[in-house]
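Morning. Coffee machine broken again, so started the prediction first thing and wrote up yesterday's gels while waiting. Chain of 265 residues, entered below exactly as on the submission form.
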Amino acid sequence: LAGLEPLELPTDRPRPSVRSGRGSSLEFEVPAEVTGGLRELARREDCTLFMVLLGLFQVLLSTYSGQSDVAVGVPIAGRNRPETEGLVGFFLNNLVLRADLSGDPTVRELLRQVRGRALDAYANQDVPFERLVEELAPQRDLSRTPLFQVMLAAQDGFDERWEFKGLDAEALSLEATTSALDLTMSFREDGNRITACVEYSTDLFDRATIERMTGHFGELLASAAAGPDRRIGELNLLTATERQRLLVEWNDTAAPFPVDLGVPE
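Came back before lunch.
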């Protein structure tokens, strides 16, 4: 983590000098066909689905920020011993996973890098994050969290259906009102698709910006699943609506030639 620079995402407003913690959230889905392609890519590259999503999430952040050195926080359960699996208590720790996207690697090359760095981090997961900050002693800044400003989290899937005698019940999603980081994306496998939620700082981002970002991420996932031998700079981020606007609507400059111009003799 030596020489790690803060992630500078473009924001809708200047970063306040002190984080307020105000936030909101937005849910989205990855369709079944894309989820299936990502699972197959993970299988072929001997990765987990989480590693695939992490690598492509770092590509998205790199594209937005223009930085090739991207660090993302990852929560880990801290229950790496069988006797702690059923023990009540808070074992959660945060890891910092850093990706080097310089040189425009292919998707496969990126996943090999992400897999290696993730396994190294898992092997050292017992080092408390607070100890890491203490030892590295980054320059403290009240406007952002140390070492990482964006997090990716995998949630365990669960059945959202309950049956009660004489009563119908369903789970309702609650929109967040706080955000500890600039962005936190959490996801879970829900049958043959992925459901995800982005929690974001409203000090920095408008909802419309996060909607565009999740749309770009969905296009990026589909592009990588369909072409894992592409270089990451060749992956598509634009939605169909954006392509129509950029390539057709904004280039529709045809105009009738004026017929009343005098022709010189």
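The chain has six helices and eight strands. Going to sketch it on the whiteboard this afternoon.
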